[in-house]
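Q: Cobalamin/Fe(3+)-siderophore ABC transporter ATP-binding protein, please. Structure only.
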Amino acid sequence: MEALETKNLSLSYGEATIIDSLNLSIPKGKVTVFIGSNGCGKSTLLRSLARLLKPVSGAVLLDGEAVAKLPTKEVAKRLAILPQGPVAPEGLTVLQLVKQGRYPYQNWLQQWSEADEKMVRDALLATGMAPFAEKAVDSLSGGQRQRAWIAMTLAQGTSTILLDEPTTYLDLTHQIEVLDILFDLNRTEQRTIVMVLHDLNLACRYADHIVALSNQKVYAQGKPEEIITTDLVKDVFHMDCQIIADPVFGTPMLVPFGKGRQVKREEAVALAIG
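A: Structure for Cobalamin/Fe(3+)-siderophore ABC transporter ATP-binding protein:
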């Protein structure tokens, strides 16, 4: 069974169609990355998967069940979403933010429990945010803030986590830091991770499964080494490039064509070797 599926899904904002009759399968227990040009519908599709946007037609299935028919709390116990650029209320501490991930489990019969406390502690430890638990979220660096929000989604205890551009506005060090956390989470706990990423090279490095969106549909989906080609980059991003193997990870690496400083071939070889 797939973690998430769409069946003839169509999405729009007003009169503008964003996604048209899309059929998609997201494998359970894998890292899936959505790629595509700006405005192609990646974030819109992610919102629909989380039931934040009602389809014009078609359906989203979560673990084989129509997500539209599931109770809201049931969805929140099985699927978490971290939107792009979330903002915490002024003065809210990291601990208070992470505790919000346990709200789907609270009701008048079941108040805060030791199990809730453990999930929060584990989430803080997994993201390296335990030392910052009493710090205000708005006082943290960009990378720390993003880790705090990821900790909140972890505390929610869902088997599937959706993240909309989790590395946006982060420098390279913090991008890798955030992606490593998500990668480790997938590998150690087999949680299904679905992300929108702009950097194709990082997408290829971290993804088990890539979905390329273009012209309101899925252009291609599959393992990075199977679908990332010069033709795909040309058709989806309207850019010429060369695809080579990453010298460290062996994953597809995109070298875009364009203007820039050129070096002699022998210098380039020497740089590549190290």
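A: Brief note, in case it's useful. The chain has one domain: 2-256.
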